[in-house]
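Let us work through a complete example step by step.
Step 1: write down the sequence.
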Amino acid sequence: MKFNLLFLLLALLSAPLFGQNPAFNFDKNEVETNLKYLASDELGGRRTGSKGEQLAADFISEKLESYGVKPVTGRADFIQKVPFTNFKPPKSASLKIGINNFTAGSNLLIINGKDLAIETEIVFVGNGWVDEARGIDDYKGIDVKGKIVLTITGTPDGNDPAEVMRSMPKKQEFAANHGAIALLEAYRLAMPWQFAKSFFGKERMDITKDEAESNIIYGWVQEQNPGILQLVKEQENVAAKLNIVIGDTKKLLANNIVGIIEGTDDSLKNEYIILSAHFDHIGMGRLGGAAFTPQDSIFNGARDNCIGTVALMAAAKELAANPPKRSVLILACTAEEMGMLGSQWYADHPLLPMDKMVFNLNNDGAGYNSTEHFNVIGMGFTNVDKEMKQAGLQVGLNMLGDPAPEQNLYERSDNISFARLGIPAVDFAPGIKEMDEEVYKYYHQATDNADSLDYDYVLKFCQAYTLAARMIADKNGKIDWQGAGKQYAK
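Step 2: predict the structure and record it as tokens.
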């Protein structure tokens, strides 16, 4: 009994006490200085592909180098270039199917295309999906060469917005490979048509398409009454006339930032924890959004996502100085605000084999209305909740789950790019009890400036993220999906 009591006492004395901050290789002054630069007017809102985004990328890269983070073996620096095309809405576009007329800006959205004037046939091909492994081929026995293909939005697996967005590149590829001149989808999303128009009907940015995708017209049509699907499905040789005059497009390059910290354990260092955060925001003036004034037209994004970026930098500094058992991949992503495109590009073009990646601890948020909490979007999805909760408690923060499940936040940040590949992933976010007026006062507003932040809280948040990263990287056993997260398991 005496031995057991002594052992217990020694264990308690050697363990970190909840509420007692461990020593870190960063402090409040460094966190505040880094954040104020990233959220400064000089960077102009860090819009993807802008001068400000390049300045931010250079700044983060220089800091990673000074911390001792290394570029991926064989690469000269931390930059992964991501190719984008900046699209403007068509100058004009019209579609006629039978007696039904569609016009850009009203009931027709041309999302991808080129100048075209054609009279041909339109053919219905279900979802327009091909999956040989599952025996799915919606094009089987259908001649679409030189014709317009009409499909339903989504895939055989679903029609929710995330599924629709994921399916878009593949559906264009399938249509192009079968010789179609255009792919149009009958709009069936739950979100109102007006929302789709407001996003795709304005100047926007997308990853530069490959040849197959870029050579096909792609768009959405709002169904008439009676529906065009019914007309095209029930009749043969349905005539269609499509005229498009495209607006200007511009090619540009943006930056992902990728570094590595090698682990210390011989049996675990070939496994990687991805620590990620997006450093882009939405820019200035009308390109940024409508909520600006003559006095302030720069969307500095201090909360979204300078807090996350600085937390990523803090974790990189700490872990580079004292590496954990597993290796760590540091990933600062561009173009999250454009649809998680930077992380999507990395997931599709990894610099290290993706089968070595065992977990993604993303860091992104909409702001905070509690300085006593942090949120895990995806709490209960993986078997590392215990580590994240303990990390928070050690610096005096309590863990909350998703504050707004109805908004599908899990699939609206960069963690989803890795979850889709079957890699366990969560989003670690500043504390929000509910999406209220205090959050929306700053979210994507020109008021989201660095001088509005509580830096005592920001420091604690950075500490909690850093500790969580270390605990997960040091965790014994397999990191895996659980509960509702199993839907993403491969």
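Step 3: interpret the result. The CA atoms of residues 120 and 168 lie 23 Å apart.
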